[in-house]
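Just wondering, can you check both lines?
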Amino acid sequence: MLSLMLVAGVVVAAVGGHSEQAPALVFGAVGAVGLVLCVVLFWPRRRRELVRDVDGSLTIAAPWAVVVVMIAAWAMAGVVGASLVFTVVTDGIDALESPGAALVLVGALLASLPDAVRLATGRLHRWRVTLAPSGLRYRGYRTDIELPWVKVRGSRLQASRLFRWTGVPESMRPGESGPKGYGVVVDRKGSGPDFLVPQAFFRVPAAQISEEIERFRS
């Protein structure tokens, strides 16, 4: 989503013609949303006091600020795409100084329409991990996985590939197969693939999430 926003910003900067002023305002809004998103996702984490439910279960959810900013970014990118289409319809494609970049953005937005439908129908999920005496459930974006503890081999921290050659311990480096990204990898027993609980969307540190998984599993 952040990359889509950056493309949107570049495209809007290249728009000319009579509609130059309105896309410039949209560009400023997209840039502001992107800045907030970067602050929210990459602000240093600290350990937190986690509150359990009355049945002993524990839910760790992404802050609503992250969800709102992501949806706002998506909406802003949609506004940018709509403004580009309007410019082409009213002034012709020659009004765009960078029609190739505009085509990339509009194509990306069209490709995201199925996710927009999922969002409208409640099938895109807020990122959350629920740990209960009976098992683990992870929901995030399109993913919804529920496992009893007998199907969980364990959890481990994983670093991003960006830091693969910068002194990261071998145990934290991502393998050639399996999930990619920084966060907590949940190792399944059996034939199901392992999956990643990404750190970016949670205020609770990945190490603390992994510790809680191991505590419930034991």
